[in-house]
DNA sequence: TGTGAAAGACATCGCGA
DNA sequence: TCGCGATGTCTTTCACA
């Protein structure tokens, strides 16, 4: 697929804001008929520009009262150790995101738990249970100031 | 709305994985008919358990080659300064997430930009242009190890 | 590429158990 | 609360400009 044009990008913006927007709605806003909208979306899905559609749930209502970002420094940095750590971390359900980062730490984890006690249990029983964990520094989210899934594609 | 039961949670799991899953598909998996699925989803939408539906786009394909987490320490911490910083940050399109955190810094920003130069420009022209910015420490994402939007609701 | 129309699938809403 | 059936809407495809 070629690069996206302005129309594709406007469609993406609308779908990021509302994944259930109908082709008809989009066509109406863009002043086009339904078919080209349908075909453009299909192509962007096939080309991977649109990776998925998802329902966004409310963390608080579902009882995940505590979100923490957890910076981790490993002791050993050989390839085997990194791969081992990554596969172990990926299997922890509390960890929704994990990045290998460049900076003062090796990995950054985003952790969702019910409360502070659950976070303590996560650190003590799961994270610290892994070999090779060096320094760990946690930041607790007190207030989300901004959260948007969408990227400014236009 | 009362608390979610096991069926609601299974529905949420499916919708988090695929926001376009049809009621028919879900009904089939859960061994129920379409109507109760439809009504349960409707109730979860109205009660706010489901906040939105969104298309998930591919950052890399769209040219956002650099993701950075940026820890910010402010100089002044009076209410007015915090509110001013938050409203200014929220208007920056590079910032997809911003949290007021407890820990070694005051705020954590997630920043999406095209490349390192764009990040430098963001820091120099936008972030540093704000009053009241003290210490700033950035971590660059080298490799996403795990990324999931969904929460383990079951 | 885009438009318009037609067929099929789905969401939505009564009614009954 | 759930299951079934009717209706309107959307998706999907096809012929054509």
From TrEMBL, chains A, B:
Pfam families: AsnC_trans_reg, HTH_24. This is Lrp/AsnC family transcriptional regulator. Residues 4-65 form the HTH asnC-type domain. Coiled coil: none annotated. One of its GO terms (biological process) is regulation of DNA-templated transcription. One of its GO terms (molecular function) is sequence-specific DNA binding. One of its GO terms (cellular component) is cytosol. It comes from Phaeodactylibacter luteus. SMART domains: HTH_ASNC (SM00344). PANTHER family: LEUCINE-RESPONSIVE REGULATORY PROTEIN (PTHR30154), TRANSCRIPTIONAL REGULATOR AZLB (PTHR30154:SF34). SUPFAM superfamilies: Dimeric alpha+beta barrel, Winged helix' DNA-binding domain. Keywords: DNA-binding, Transcription, Transcription regulation.
């Amino acid at each position: 697929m070629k690069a996206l044009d302005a129309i594709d990008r406007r469609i993406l913006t609308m779908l990021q804001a509302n994944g259930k927007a109908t082709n008809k709605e989009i066509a109406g806003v863009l002043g086009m008929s339904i078919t080209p909208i349908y075909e453009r979306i299909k192509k962007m899905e096939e080309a991977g520009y649109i990776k998925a559609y998802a329902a966004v749930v409310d963390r608080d209502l579902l009882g995940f009262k505590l979100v923490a970002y957890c910076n981790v420094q490993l002791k050993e940095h050989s390839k085997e150790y990194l791969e081992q750590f990554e596969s172990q971390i990926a299997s922890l359900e509390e960890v929704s995101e994990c990045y290998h980062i460049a900076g003062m730490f090796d990995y950054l984890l985003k952790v969702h738990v019910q409360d502070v006690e659950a976070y303590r249990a996560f650190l003590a029983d799961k994270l610290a249970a892994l070999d090779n964990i060096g320094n760990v520094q946690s930041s607790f989210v007190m207030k989300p100031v901004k959260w948007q899934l969408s990227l400014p594609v236009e």
